[in-house]
């Protein structure tokens, strides 16, 4: 899921940056490119997922087109922020992979 969201953010942002956009679009594209790369590698996933969820929710409200794509990416980024990066990520290597075990049922 991290890779899908990271690629979905980085590829369009990179193509916008290659087209020499205006300054306001450049700043937003750099932020989305950076967060897409961080999500793809799984570095600072809860923080970056929250940022992406807010940015995409803002784009959903203010953007003129592609509203369903913005909604999908915002939902996936929020899920990543809550679930964490997973076993194969830079976060897992740096900080250890945390697994939540449910408590056993009492009879």
What does this 3D model show about the protein?
This protein starts with a helix and ends in a 12-residue tail after the last helix. 72% of the residues lie in helices and 0% in strands. The chain has one domain (2-85). With 107 residues, it is mainly α. The protein is elongated. It has five helices and no strands. α1 (2-18) packs antiparallel against α2.
Give the SSE map.
Layout: H1 2-18, H2 23-41, H3 45-62, H4 67-83, H5 90-95
Task: Please describe the structure with a list of short key phrases separated by commas or semicolons.
mainly alpha; about 0% strand
Could you write a compact summary of the structure shown?
The protein has helices at 2-18, 23-41, 45-62, 67-83, 90-95.
Instruction: List segments where confidence is low: pLDDT < 50 over at least 5 consecutive residues.
Output: none
Distance between the termini: 37 Å
Number of strands: 0
Strand % is under 5%
Reported for the largest beta sheet, the result is: none
Radius of gyration: 16 Å
Which of globular, elongated, flat, extended, rod-shaped describes the shape?
A: elongated
Helix percent reads over 70%
**How many domains make up the 3D coordinates?**
1
Order of helices and strands: HHHHH
Q: Structural class given helices, strands, pairing? A: mainly alpha
Mean pLDDT: 87
Number of helical segments with 4 or more residues: 5
């Amino acid at each position: 899921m991290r890779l899908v969201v990271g690629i979905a953010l980085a590829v369009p942002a990179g193509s916008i940056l290659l087209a020499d956009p205006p300054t306001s679009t450049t700043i937003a594209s750099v932020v989305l490119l950076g967060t897409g790369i961080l999500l793809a590698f799984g570095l600072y996933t809860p923080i970056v997922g929250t940022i992406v969820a807010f940015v995409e929710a803002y784009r959903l409200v203010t953007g003129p087109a592609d509203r369903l794509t913005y909604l999908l990416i915002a939902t996936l980024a929020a899920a990543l922020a809550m679930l964490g990066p997973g076993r194969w990520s830079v976060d897992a290597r740096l900080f250890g992979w945390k697994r939540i075990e449910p408590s056993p049922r009492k009879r």
